[in-house]
């Protein structure tokens, strides 16, 4: 018998999903049977739903789309922070919530995982603000609602929610008779007038600069962006929010722009440009060091799916993929001035000195290899990593807008599963790791072999920079990070751990970790509590002011 559950799973496969995350519960168990019965889908059980949502987010960033399954109430509410992050940062994740049978819901029974008031729509309503739509599946609408929600999530690159009562999952339906996307759904309105105006501005300016942002990654437009830059010989920069959407070894790449703290000559180049063209970028506080960009809206044209800003005028959002196609066809001879690429380190020497933040990020720069995926957690990790020049073919994952600590460990694991061939390097603080470390169990079970750098600076250094350097609320319990893997199922077969304090010890651990690609590499780097990357020191002051 072909059921609603099978239909939904076939559609998820159509979207490129091979792995499904989540936590079982009695309201979704039968649905999970349909997953485990298939050879082309893998169930990956998580320690909790928050981790599952983070992991799905990382998987979707790399693979294009992800799904997680939670149970009614207790499961879905735990996942909400993760779904909120995916919504804010435009990552399409489908959450499937297994719920009580239609009969139980209609009879308003006082069953477990409810608020005890006989009402079953509270949790759906809570999800309205953080999803593109709610599909409340019934016998009558299951097929059309599944297609509607998957279509919306895919088009808008944001999460979709499906409430699947156990009995609805088991109902018989017809197999899909046409693909999820027929051309009609994808048909998009042309933004001709806008394109003409951009063409005119580009032809009239002397020093244009492109700021490429996170939506280039959300909509997977990296290749198109590269074509556009190459064709018109345009200088390009990224914000920390959107780092990695352009090849940082390309001759058109200027470096990461962070507002006031940006290094010269990049800062003046961007601030004094007569056109700053933002493509899918958002000028958020952490991407611009508290809105400290040195250019004004008058200099700027910003094209994004939520909003267009045309030299000070705020207009409705656009379809970024079509607009990039159109931009490739404009009548413009291209930029002819000089482009000064970012400077790079020659080599990093290691001594017996203790590792500082400044040294560490230089060591990381010279460690990166083509094709790596660099993942950086909120905290000193993100501010350190976001300006490190990357190699060709590298990807970058961070969450600077939503900024939920603990996100990156599961997200990195999700992305590593989505792209096994890319070595994943995670940089995470001790404080952040303590939130989601339970996924070490899953890491070892699935035999994943990323390189994890734990910055052990004995607490919340980033917060010490903002407020309360000596306050107890910025302290955390000191864990024995070396013993953690063995608690979670680690053996000499699947993990190797290092604890480093000096530059020389770091260099040795890094070299060995790179060569050992079959086991998890767990590298604890001890650093001073008061040591922070420059960008963070400046940002800390700006955030403190923003909060006063
Ligand atoms: N809770 C959640 C879920 N997300 C947050 N971002 C915060 C609280 C606030 C917060 C930060 S940064 C941070 C917290 C608690 C501490 C990170 O400490 P760490 O991981 O040890 O990093 P570091 O290397 O800096 O010591 C806000 C500012 O984003
Ligand atoms: Mg810390």
Chemical compounds bound to the protein: ligand R1T, magnesium ion
- The count of DSSP E runs of length 2 or more, i.e. the number of strands, is 19
Number of domains: 3
Query: Which word captures the global form?
Result: globular
Q: How many angstroms does the end-to-end distance come to?
A: 62 Å
CATH class descriptor name of the largest domain: Alpha Beta
Instruction: Kindly report the oligomeric state of this protein.
Output: single chain
Spans of 5+ residues with little confidence (pLDDT < 50)? 184-188
Would you tell me the overall average pLDDT? Answer: 95
CATH architecture tag of the largest domain: 3-Layer(aba) Sandwich
**What structural class do you assign from the helix and strand content?**
alpha/beta
Q: Would you tell me which CATH topology of the largest domain applies?
A: Rossmann fold
Tell me the strand order in the biggest sheet. Answer: 9-8-7-10-11-12-13
Radius of gyration: 24 Å
Count of individual helical segments: 23
Beta percentage is 15-25%
How many strands, what sense, and barrel or not for the largest sheet?
A: 7 strands, mixed
CATH superfamily descriptor of the largest domain: Thiamin diphosphate (ThDP)-binding fold, Pyr/PP domains
Determine the fraction of residues in helical runs and give it as a percent range: 25-40%
């Amino acid at each position: 018998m072909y059921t609603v559950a099978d239909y939904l799973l076939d559609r998820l496969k159509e979207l490129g999903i091979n792995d499904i995350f989540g936590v079982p519960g009695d309201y979704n168990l039968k649905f999970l049977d349909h997953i485990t019965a298939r050879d082309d889908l893998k169930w990956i059980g998580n320690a909790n739903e928050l981790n599952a949502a983070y992991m799905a987010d990382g998987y979707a960033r790399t693979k294009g789309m992800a799904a997680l399954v939670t149970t009614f109430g207790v499961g879905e509410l735990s996942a909400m922070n993760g779904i909120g992050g995916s919504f804010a940062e435009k990552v399409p994740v489908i959450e499937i919530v297994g719920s009580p049978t239609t009969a139980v819901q209609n009879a308003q029974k006082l069953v477990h995982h409810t608020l005890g008031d006989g009402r079953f729509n509270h949790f759906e309503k809570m999800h309205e603000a953080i999803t593109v739509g709610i599909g409340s599946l019934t016998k009558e609408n299951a097929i059309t609602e599944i297609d509607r929600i998957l279509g919306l999530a895919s088009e808008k690159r944001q999460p979709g929610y499906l409430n699947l009562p156990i009995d609805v999952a088991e109902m018989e339906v017809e197999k899909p008779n046409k693909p999820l996307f027929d051309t009609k759904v994808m048909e998009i309105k042309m933004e001709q007038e806008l394109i003409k105006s951009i063409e005119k501005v580009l032809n009239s300016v002397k020093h244009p600069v492109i700021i490429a942002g996170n939506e280039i990654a959300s909509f997977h437009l990296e290749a198109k962006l590269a074509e556009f830059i190459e064709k018109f010989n345009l200088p390009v920069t990224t914000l920390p929010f959107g780092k990695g959407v352009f090849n940082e070894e390309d001759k058109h790449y200027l470096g990461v722009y962070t507002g006031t703290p940006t290094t010269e000559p990049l800062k003046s180049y961007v601030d004094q440009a007569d056109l700053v063209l933002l493509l899918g970028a958002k000028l958020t506080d952490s991407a611009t060091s508290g809105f400290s960009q040195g250019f004004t809206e008058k200099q700027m044209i910003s094209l994004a799916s939520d909003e267009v800003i045309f030299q000070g005028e705020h207009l409705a959002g656009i379809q970024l993929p079509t607009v990039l196609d159109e931009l490739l066809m404009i009548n413009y001879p291209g930029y002819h001035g000089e482009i000064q690429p970012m400077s790079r380190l020659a080599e990093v020497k290691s001594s017996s000195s203790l590792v500082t933040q400044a040294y560490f990020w230089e060591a990381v720069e010279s460690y990166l290899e083509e094709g790596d995926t660099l993942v950086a957690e909120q905290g000193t990790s993100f501010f350190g990593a976001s300006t490190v020049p990357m190699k060709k073919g590298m990807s970058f994952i961070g969450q600077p807008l939503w900024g939920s600590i603990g996100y990156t460990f599961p997200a990195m694991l999700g992305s590593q599963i989505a792209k096994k061939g890319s070595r994943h390097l995670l940089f995470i603080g001790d404080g952040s790791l303590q939130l989601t470390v339970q996924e070490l169990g899953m890491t070892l079970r699935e035999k994943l072999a990323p390189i994890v750098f734990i910055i052990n600076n004995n607490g919340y250094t980033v917060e010490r920079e903002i407020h309360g350097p000596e306050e107890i609320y910025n302290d955390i319990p000191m864990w024995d990070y070396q013993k953690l893997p063995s608690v979670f199922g680690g053996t000499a077969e699947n993990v190797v751990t290092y604890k480093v304090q000096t530059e020389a010890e770091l260099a040795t651990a890094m070299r060995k970790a790179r060569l050992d690609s079959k086991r998890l590499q767990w590298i604890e780097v001890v650093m001073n509590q008061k040591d922070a990357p420059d960008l963070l020191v400046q940002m800390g002051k700006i955030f403190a002011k923003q909060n006063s």
